[in-house]
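Let us practice reading a record.
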Amino acid sequence: MKSLPERKKWMSLLAKAPSELVSNTFSDVMERYGLTAEFTWLRKPEIGGVMVQARAGATGAPFNFGEMTVTRCSLKLENGNVGHAYVQGRDKDKAEKAAIIDAYLQGDKAEIFAANIITPIENALAAVKANREQKAAKTKVDFFTLVRGED
């Protein structure tokens, strides 16, 4: 049995993934495995703001960087699993699907959702990161100093 990613990891991936990717992979899994998304809202999608903190040089004292809009929701599947989601922006549909995925990942269908949703999202985000790093590497400039023989 393949080990599942930690909840912290899959919640992060769902929050960072583009809406289209979450929606498409979710729809594919639900259709392919004949699953339903029957649930009861515990907290309907709500849009709000959070204060984002940063650190100078990643090690300095924390400071308030600014505010960010987030959408959150909580739901309970008909099998009793509870799912939560916090996603950046005002996308209520993405928050709902992320919460459903979170709930399924905590149940007996976890391996299906991990293999068909979390892994593709992880691969897609890794490809975006690699592409960004490759573009940045092309702009790298190495500076050097020539030493003259004079004192």
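A brief commentary: The helical segments are 7-16, 19-32, 92-105, 110-138.
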